[in-house]
Amino acid sequence: MKKKIEYYIKEIEEKIEFPGKEMEYNETNSEFDSIYNEIFSEYSKECENHRNNIFENRKKIFWIRFTLIAIAVILIMTIPLLGLLERESIFHILLFIDVLAYATFEYIYVYCSKVDTIESYLKYYKNNVISNLVKLININLVYEEIADSHIIDVYKKAFGNTHCQWYDDYIHGVICGNRDIEMINFLNSKSNELNKDNILFWGIFATLNLGKNINSSIKILPDKAIMSTKRKLNLDSSKFEECFDVHTDDRILATRILTADVMEKLVDIYKKYKIGFDINIIDNRLYLRLFSEETFEPTLYSKYEKERLYYDYNCINLILELSEKITEVIDNMEI
Questions:
Q1: What is the pTM of this model?
Q2: Is the distance from CB of 150 to CB of 113 less than 8 angstroms?
Q3: What per-residue confidence (pLDDT) applies to 9?
């Protein structure tokens, strides 16, 4: 279930921008710079054409609205000056026709033209820019704009039943040898009604086949997460416990997995990317939630293009780094 086009229209009308976080990066790394230059040497011009079409469409809509409203105002001001009922009736008819034309324009032309220009840009950006970003980060990963609904069942297995508002931007492939990984951009809420107070999770959900069954569950959650204290595990790293809480049904196994090296790595990743995440290991699968909110969205302004894409680049790399570290540790354990 993709985001509805009305969601994009509302964001653009209210904020004059596609949905997404405002990023402020002082600098990017050399790997990303190389990826960015390779992508936009090919797609920059066409992206700019799509953006120009959206702005031109906004201008056309403004002037047609202005003209129809001006005609209605002139007719209304003219009616009291007419002495003959017949003429007044004629002008009433003309006024009615103008109002009808305005209503038709609003519901047909405005909506359809907005949908056409916005959808065209979204499709081009995601299937070219984001698709190539994913491929250049890891050749074994594939991007698809739409995800299969099975991924929601996977999410529910790890985090329980919730109301899914949308899921799209499906990334899948193999990493860490030959282990399958899936990621989606996902938003779920407490009920079908969507508002800020109702959101449970908004970001990227990823799941990875560990290749080994730990026959247990370990949850690594953001510090002060609301959970039962019965399964909480206290560890020796104060830096780690400033960032995370651990809950498990096998304390010995969790301690073997969360070595000093692993805890240090998780803290380093958290501080490096400055994006919240939690980890849930259940039997032979790893489940990750990255609290990134909007990802993989274009911009209406070329000056924000690089920052937006750098955020997406960091989100994917954060998930890959976490997956590789957890997999490495479990691979080297005897369970």
A1: 0.85
A2: no
A3: 74
